[in-house]
From TrEMBL:
UniProt entry keywords in alphabetical sequence: Disulfide bond
PROSITE patterns linked: THIOREDOXIN_2
Entries under Gene3D superfamilies matching the protein: Glutaredoxin (3.40.30.10)
Keyword Disulfide bond: yes
Domain Thioredoxin: 104-220
Domain of life: Eukaryota
Signal peptide residues on this chain, from the entry's feature table: none
Pfam families: Thioredoxin (PF00085)
Species whose genome carries this gene: Noctiluca scintillans
Stated name of the protein: Thioredoxin domain-containing protein
Length: 220
């Protein structure tokens, strides 16, 4: 992927501004294929850009080199704390020891408060746009309210969880500001968390136990 991007860097229109926009809406990190597809989808909404026959290559070429890593296929905004950890297990065969990858997972170092973002949404349009731009990433939507004491008490823990789960997009909906969205998904109690992928609802959790929320997310 890295070499392909280098070969196509000078072709076509610069879409770096869309790369930043999509990454910001997705928590700062995405697999390069998901990022490419999301940038292409956004670019097709722009005047004249949709006629570019090399749009996928242009999207790849617009990813800044400093956003890339030789260690994995994730694209990160500068300042993202996401990193890939590979665990190896030692096994023996015919008397000789060999290393084989037993687990590959994405993890994060502890982020500072200003680096963690749970995006707050204020309109129906921003909600729909955020789901669309998330692509195939898992989206966790927190339905809460300023007067909900349990919601406010959970906020610091939720932001810490968002910092740990690098590839999950966290959104916050104030039910008083976007009550139509809350009604659409039959939100009756708070906090309520609804999970989406590819714009479709795939699960939910009601409660303020952040550990249970993390377990629910892990099953998706």
């Amino acid at each position: 992927f890295w070499l392909k991007m280098q070969r196509t860097r000078k072709r076509g229109q610069d879409l770096t501004f869309l790369v930043d926009e999509v990454l910001s809406a997705s928590g700062g990190v995405l697999p390069w294929r998901d990022l490419r597809d999301a940038v292409v989808a956004r670019a097709r909404e722009l005047p004249r850009v949709h006629r570019n026959e090399f749009l996928e290559e242009t999207a790849l070429a617009s990813i800044p080199v400093e956003y890339l890593s030789h260690d994995d296929d994730l694209v990160r905004l500068p300042g993202s704390h996401c990193k890939r950890r590979v665990n190896f297990a030692t096994s023996s065969y015919s008397g000789s020891a060999s290393r084989s990858a037993s687990a590959v997972e994405v993890s994060c170092s502890a982020p500072s408060a200003e680096d963690v973002r749970v995006r707050e949404l204020n309109t129906e349009k921003s909600f729909a746009t955020a789901l669309q731009r998330a692509g195939s990433a898992l989206v966790v939507v927190d339905f809460s309210a300023t007067w909900c004491q349990a919601c406010q008490a959970l906020r610091p823990e939720l932001r810490h969880l968002a910092g740990e789960l690098c590839e999950v997009v966290f959104l916050e909906v104030d039910v008083d500001k976007i009550h139509t969205v809350a009604n659409q998904f039959s939100v009756k109690t708070m906090p309520t968390f609804i999970f989406f992928r590819l714009g479709e609802r795939i699960g939910s959790y009601e409660g303020n136990d952040v550990d249970q929320l993390a377990l629910e997310i892990e099953t998706l």
